[in-house]
Amino acid sequence: MSVFQSVNPATGKTLHTAPAWTHTELTTVLDHQAAQWPALAKATVPRRLVWLESLKQQLSSAKTVLARTITREMGKPIRQSEAEVDKTLALIDFLLGHADSALHPRTLASDVQQAYAPLGGILGIMPWNYPIWQVCRFALPALVAGNTVAVKPAPNVLLSTRMLEQLVADAGFPDQSLRVLQADVEQLDHAYDHPHIRQVHFTGSSHAGRDIAAACGQRLKPTTLELGGNDAWLLTDSGDLPRFVETALASRMNNSGQSCLCAKRWLIPHGRLDAVLNELDTHLKTYTPAPPEQTDTTLGPLARSDIQARLLTQWQRLKAGAKVRSEDPSLEGLYTGPAWAVTDEPLKSPVWPDEIFGPVLQLATYRDLDEAVTWANHSRYGLGGSVWDADPAHARDIALKLNTRNIGINRPMRSRIDVAFGGMGDSGWGAELGVDGLRGLARGQMQFLD
């Protein structure tokens, strides 16, 4: 049986250990959710928003403690953990302002309207790198739409997820509205089989996403999958080089490089490489690994030893084909310093197409924009990216040639609370957030009127 264990990556201290549930325990919780669901489903949307407003107050009061728990469980710098809670609060504000109208019947034709009703139970299988935000971006809209939520967290962030479970209960939502499933991966088939579970949301690796999609497909249960990214940031001859480097590096180092949506691959014109490396050297000095609970820390430890081991293996493969590179990443426990490598043959690189989780960045120099686009598209992923050019219209034309669902024009690409967000290719399918994401968590019904 698997174990849920929270270990502070900064100190190595075990914070909490708990066994995975048995099949009986898992099924009992889902049965209880199904039995209590009518109390949530029959409530009006305005009534659910009253509970959500209460949750906002609860979450605001718990922000400091919750952020500290996130940092202690997975090593995120404390200011970034606080920002994760703030983004969740912003999502609540969006839902408070838009959910009632979004879930109101819409007139599609003179005799046709689309109405919305609760689905049932929504299962979320969630990662460790954003243990509150990743859960809330589907769970809070699901609750507002009248669904119960069951969350299977990553084994190393159980404490953070349990805090959220308690906050939802304290906010006044009906009993069993949101439950944390202390379930082993092998037990998830029982959750997919449960008649109350009507939809599954997953954030994690492409390998696991394929398994989940196959299992849910056999049961004809829809999935939303966010499976990582390998974002290309393309600088042209006219793009703002200093701002590109500063912004791209901040994107890459966010959450100590452990983010799906960030500047993992930089495409640089041949003639601008020296200037980029000089600028990069200047800004890298601000990213030194330090204890994550210090308020001025910009780079904390990696979350787990297996993540560090994979990163170092990728670095060895990356530097073997580099024409220019930095020194090896500094290492002290799970604290891992930043590193970079430049190639002029990314199509031959064994690492270029793959996602790197950690503070290592890949650069490639290109001769013309056709080559840059080819190299940017040499990846299975399609989550984000960015194009930098003095002419925004030209940048948009380039962007349309890149195989990605989301892209920034002279700015970073970030998920927004008011816009649907999702990927393509090995980055998954479906979307969360915005009005479209909210409606996707409801049962839409076409009503043909007399």
From TrEMBL:
| GO terms of molecular function | succinate-semialdehyde dehydrogenase (NAD+) activity
Q: Where is the active site?
A: E226
Q: Which SUPFAM superfamilies match?
A: ALDH-like
Where is each Aldehyde dehydrogenase domain found?
Answer: 4-439
In terms of InterPro entries, this protein maps to: Ald_DH/histidinol_DH (IPR016161), Ald_DH_C (IPR016163), Ald_DH_CS_GLU (IPR029510), Ald_DH_N (IPR016162), Aldehyde_DH_dom (IPR015590), GABD/Sad-like (IPR047110)
Sorted UniProt keywords: Oxidoreductase
What's the family? Belongs to the aldehyde dehydrogenase family.
Q: Which PANTHER family match?
A: SUCCINATE SEMIALDEHYDE DEHYDROGENASE [NAD(P)+] SAD (PTHR43217)
Official protein name in the record: Aldehyde dehydrogenase
Q: Which organism is it from?
A: Saccharospirillum salsuginis
